[in-house]
Amino acid sequence: MSRELWATYSVRDHLEPRGLAADVMLFDRLVFPVPETSLFDMSRPEMPAVVEWRRNPEEWKRWQKEGWEPESQEHLLDMLRPVIRKIPWDRADPDTRTTERRRHV
User: Fold this and answer.
1) Which of 58, 68, 86, 103 is the 20 to 30 Å CA partner of 11?
2) Alpha carbon distances (Å) from 19 to 12, 22, 62, 65, 84
3) Cβ-contact 32, 85 below 8 angstroms
């Protein structure tokens, strides 16, 4: 069994898509923070859960204000759909991520 190689990105890395070109070839999965919320459909427990992603309006506006161009990211991730994984990213998460990081250090 081979191991998968995953790459993780910041909220700004999609702004330079040329830099991602080599990563698509080098890594099995590309993980991006997104201004979206994930919803899981667990209506059929015998089937893998389907994840539906919806824009988080408040976070979407914040990303636009910060110049992180969420529309550009959305377009890029649609093209890379087979190899990407999304993680929700909003104001509430930084504290959670810091706590998790401290636990694993």
Assistant:
1) 103
2) 12, 7, 24, 24, 15
3) yes
CA atoms within 13 A on the CB side of 32: 26
Asked if residue 27 lies in contact with residue 84, where contact means CB atoms within 8 angstroms, the answer is no
Tell me how far apart the alpha carbons of residues 103 and 1 are, in angstroms, rounded to a whole number. 29
Instruction: Copy the structure tokens of residue 21.
Output: 């070109």
Spatial separation of the C-alpha atoms in residues 41 and 81, rounded to whole Å: 19
Full-model pTM: 0.78
Span 31-77, pLDDT tens digits: 999 999 988 766 777 777 778 899 999 999 999 999 999 999 999 99
Q: Which long-range contacts (CB under 8 A, 24 or more apart) does 21-30 make?
A: 24/80, 24/83, 27/83, 28/4, 28/83, 29/4, 29/5, 29/83, 29/84, 29/85, 30/6, 30/80, 30/83, 30/84, 30/85
